[in-house]
Amino acid sequence: MKKPVSMLGAALITAGLLAAPMAMAGSQGAQQGQPQAPAQMQQPQPVEPGTLSKQYQDDELRSFLDVNRDMIPVIKSLSSQNVKDQEQAQSMMQEFQSKTEDSLKQHDLSVQQYQKIGTDASRDKALEKRLINMDPELYKQLQAMQSQAQQQPAK
User: Is the dihedral angle over the CA atoms 132, 95, 9, 121 positive or is it negative?
Assistant: First the structure.
């Protein structure tokens, strides 16, 4: 059976729930080799820096960062578990989804808002830089997680 990171990573990317943090961490390679829905295979087209950044208030971006911060321990915990069967993998995905939804509610963001900020950050370098500058430590954590996930071989 595959390592949990591989199984969860593919499922989360397909669900679009992990796309934003990975985009913020500059992960063009994070989605390579992962099964995706056809609509998600296309990379968002870059825009002139600052174009999309202007449409976001700092409070909304802080909420986006807060959700990412909340999910780091959840992702680490689930990623450290060995998946024994499909039922356990499904249970882990449900737990992740539930915790993600709770965090989104707590920080007053919809899934669509969260995804849009992540997608826009991957398209607008000024928005990405703005997010990084708001929480450089979170950015480092996301980069480390991405690097670790890419280094773990599937079993």
Answer: negative
DSSP the chain: ---HHHHHHHHHHHHTSSHHHHHHTT-SSTTTTS---HHHHSPPPP--TTTTGGG--HHHHHHHHHHHHHHHHHHHHHHTSPP-SHHHHHHHHHHHHHHHHHHHHHTT--HHHHHHHHHHHHH-HHHHHHHHHH-HHHHHHHHHHHHHHHHSPP-
The CA radius of gyration of the chain, in Å to the nearest whole number, is 15
CA distances from 107 to 66, 82, 102, 150 (A): 7, 31, 9, 29
Closest CA to 20 of 139, 148, 134: 139
Give the pair of three-digit tokens for residue 105: 């509610």
Q: What angle do CA 3, 11, 24 make, to 5 degrees?
A: 95
* pTM of the predicted protein model: 0.69
Report the alpha-carbon distance of residue 104 to residue 99 in Å, rounded: 9
Using pLDDT thresholds of 50, 70 and 90, give the confidence band for residue 148. confident
